[in-house]
Amino acid sequence: MTTLLEFRQVSKQYGKDPRALTDIEFQVHEGEFVSIIGPSGAGKSTLLRCINRMIDASSGEIIFNGTNILKFNKRELKHLRTQMGMVFQHYNLVDRLTVIDNVLHGRLGYKSTLQGVLGLYTSEEKHQAFDTLKRLGLEDQVFKRCDQLSGGQKQRVGIARALVQNPRILLCDEPIASLDPNASRVIMEHLRHISTTMGITVIVNLHQVDVALKYSDRILGVNKGSIVYDGPPQGIQDPAQLSAIYGSAWNQLQEELESKREREVVHV
Ligand SMILES: Nc1ncnc2c1ncn2[C@@H]1O[C@H](COP(=O)(O)OP(=O)(O)OP(=O)(O)O)[C@@H](O)[C@H]1O
After folding, report:
1. Where do the TM regions start and end (predicted)?
2. What pLDDT is stored for residue 79 in this prediction?
3. What stretches of the chain show up as alpha helix (H) in DSSP?
C-alpha cells in the first residue's frame, strides 16, 4: 500500500491559546477511507484543514505524496489544492448560480484569473461536470439554481465540484451534519463508492460514531488535540476505547446510543 499522506509531530496553536493539536502522527494510504471522530472541540476540523493548509500548522511536517507541504510557496500551494477536494458541512455553493456552474468552479484551480472570471471552460470540462452529476444522480438538476435544491442534493453538488478537480484525496468536514438520516445515508454511500471504485482517498470528520463504524476502513479518534485511537472500526466497539475518545462526553453518547437504538443516525 502506498502512503499518500503522513503527519509527523504536527502541532497547532491559535495565538496564545492552549494547543489545539499536539504532536499528531498518522499515515493515510492511497484509496483508504478514514473517519476522524471525537467530542466537540477535540481538534477534528483543525486537523482536517491542516491537510490542505486552509489552516497552517504551527510545527511538524505534513508529507503529501512524498513532499513536506508546509514548505510550499503560493504557486505550489495552488497546485496542491487541485489535488485535494473539499466538501463542507454547509456546502459552500453559490446559491444564485446553476448546478453545473457550481460544479465547474471545481476547475478554477487549473485556470488563470482571466479564464476563471470569464468562465472559459472547455467542452471536455463541461462534459466531465455533466458526467459527474449523472454519477451522483443529479442529471435532472443540471440547469437548476442551487437555491432550489434540497440539502442532500446540494451536498451532492459539493461532492461533484470536488470530483471535477480530479483530486487524489477528498477532505470532508462534517458532510452530513446538516442532513436528515436518509440524505446522510445517500451521501455516505456516494463517498464510500468514490473511494472504492475511483481509488480516491477519503478523510471525513464525523460526529456520528455509528456512521463512522459502518463506512470506514480506519478510524482516528481525537481527544483534546491528541490522537487516542488509530485503528480499524472493529477495535472501537470496545466501550473502553469509546470512553478514551469521548472522555466526559462518553456518558451522554452511551445514553443516546441506548435510547435511540432504533434511529438510523446518532448525533453526539
Ligand atoms: N480560529 C480559531 N481561533 C482560536 N481557537 C480556535 C480557532 N478554531 C478552533 N479553535 C479552538 O481549537 C480547538 C479545536 O477546535 P476544532 O474546531 O478543530 O474542534 P472540532 O473537534 O472540530 O470541534 P467541533 O466538533 O465542535 O466542530 C477548540 O478549543 C477551539 O476552540
Report:
1. none
2. 93
3. 44-51, 74-82, 99-104, 113-118, 123-135, 151-163, 181-198, 209-215, 239-246, 250-259
Domain assignment present for 53: yes
Q: What is the DSSP letter of 147?
A: G
For residue 225, the CA-to-ligand 1 centroid distance in Å is: 9
Q: Whose CA is nearest to atom 18 of ligand 1?
A: 43
- For a mutational test of ligand 1's pocket, the pick from 22, 35, 36, 45, i.e. the residue with the most ligand atoms closer than 8 A to its C-beta, is 45
Q: What is the pLDDT of residue 92?
A: 96
CA-closest residue to ligand 1 atom 29? 41
| CA pair distance 141, 263, nearest whole angstrom | 30
Ligand 1 centroid distance, CA of 110 (Å): 31
| pLDDT reported for residue 243 | 84
Which range marks the domain in which residue 213 is found?
3-91+167-237
Rounded Cα distance, 178 and 15, in Å:
30
136 is a domain residue: no
Q: What is the ipTM of this complex?
A: 0.98
Evaluate whether residue 160 is within a structural domain. no
Q: What is the grid cell recorded at 144?
A: 437548476
- Positions in the chain short of pLDDT 70: 257, 259-268
- 67 is a domain residue: yes
Q: Ligand 1 mean position to 45 CA, how many Å? A: 7
pLDDT value of position 262: 59
Q: Indicate yes or no: pTM above 0.95.
A: no
Tell me which of 10, 11, 14 to substitute to probe ligand 1's pocket, judged by most ligand atoms within 8 Å of the beta carbon.
Answer: 14
Q: For the chain, how many residues are written?
A: 268
Ligand 1 atom closest to residue 42's alpha carbon, by position in its atom list: 21
- Here the CATH number for the domain that contains residue 192 is 3.40.50.300
